[in-house]
Amino acid sequence: MPDMPDKPITTSLTRTPAWRALTTHQRTWHDRSLRDLFASDPQRYHRFSLEACGLLLDYSKNLIVPETLDLLLALANERRLQDQIRDLLAGKRVNTTEKRAAWHSALRAGESAPREVRKALAAMRKLAAALRNGTIHGASGNAITDVVSLGIGGSVLGPALAAAACAPDAGSPRVHFIHTPGESLHHLLAALDAATTLFIVQSKSFSTQETLLNAQAARAWLQASGVSDHGTHFAAVTAQAAAAQAFGVPAERIFPIWDWVGGRYSLWSAVGLPAMIAMGSDAFDELLAGAADMDAHFAGAPLEKNMPVLLGLIGLWHANFFAMASRAVIPYQPGLGLLPAWLQQLEMESLGKSVSRRGKALRQDTGPVLWGSAGTEGQHAYFQLLHQGTRPVPVDFITSCQPRAARREASPLGGRCATSPLGGKQVPLGGAADTNNTHAVMLSNCFAQSALLMCGVSTAQTEQTLLQQGNTAREAARLAPHQALPGNRPSNTLLLPVLDPRSLGALLALYEHRTFVQSAIWDINAFDQWGVEHGKHLAGGLLPEFTSTAPSASHDASTDGLVNYSKLHNRRKS
Q1: What is the DSSP letter of 226?
Q2: Phi, psi torsion values for 126, nearest 5 degrees
Q3: Measured between alpha carbons, how far is 482 from 478 in angstroms, rounded to an integer?
Q4: Is the pTM of this model over 0.85?
Q5: Would you please indicate which residues are annotated as catalytic (active-site) residues?
């Protein structure tokens, strides 16, 4: 494994000259508005937009002027950002607490990838092709028609997102994703045929509690359904091949994952096997290629023209200097409904830290809360808060220039594949004209919402409109404040040419690198997750309490009280 990164920075971030200059510069924004900045600079969109890897980023609606970017770039240089980018992409051990690399970029490096990566990809392609052409059979000799991925967190979110975005109309088994134990799996299994179902168990340690519960339930279902050799109905992605074999997975269907691949960065590894099965090997190769394109851009573009760097720095500007404690990611694009959930894990697991890489308490805030959903749904719910709430929320709007082709969807988390009652394929609602019209509606709503957040609607404008509608002057003056929108609320717009595997790969890698930029400036380790680990450990310690007849008395009073109440309630019901 390559060496440790260069000696860490020891200067406190908030004491650097660039940070202090940004603090001073922020005070000038009390007298500025985005509406006025656009009115005074006809070139603002061209000045603050950038194309890279087929994506267009419009960042002109942010609270920035050229001086802002100069100061942010000075901060990046003070924090030796380019050196940190080099260390990340070279596979140095940037995960300092676990002494590991975070070398997910190596998974999509093509012929330059490590030999073991290329070997694993070849094995994935072989299995995916056999499943898609119907040459893999279950124990009874029937071809596999359904593949069920069992995982949690990064082991399911990335592949489910890629499959939903890029699965073709036909040519593959139906692919399902289950991430929680219990009812979701039981409902799905009730609709499947055990003789034609294959399960992929995704667990790096092969000990993830939720995943193993589902794997055990799947094995019991196969046995209860009369499947004589349940091993032929399993594959696994894990770093613990011996544990997978002991469970009953054939050795030739165990795919590796390495300790330098974090769960939230694992789509590009064998964890992406269900997505490859859904979309096909060639499309998965394009997904990897799109991410590799963004890796090359991140490595080589100057900071002032580097898309992940600009996104990361502008996000930091809003979070640290305007105290914007959350941000929304809102796709106006069918197929990207899972993107906010994938980003929640990527960003909040990576940036939810309160100490520096040297273990010192931080003086500045780190990762904002990330949330969002499909824009067409959000417009009728939380957009009210975005437009008129007291706390501005930066937004990333994401859509594509062209509509994607009609396709059969891989099933969302816990769901079934989208099928029609006429025989298993989606029935198109209309032709190309309907698709284009629908997409035009999506684009118009996406662009209108970002414009309205920026411009707002003044009280005077609102009052004039109310007068024109026939209201009295007194009534117009009374209603105007309720209908006015403050505006001056920042957003980015990311435009894909079309939602396809290559553009999706570039988009996901863009956000991975944006996250790293912020961690590098904040001097935090983006690649461990001790909060998650401690939570799992505590849950494992609590589990025996629920089968014990003695009252729980070894934890805090609240936890003991909750455990004892639930045990008493269950005894009463039984």
Answers
A1: T
A2: -65, -45
A3: 8
A4: yes
A5: 349, 380, 536
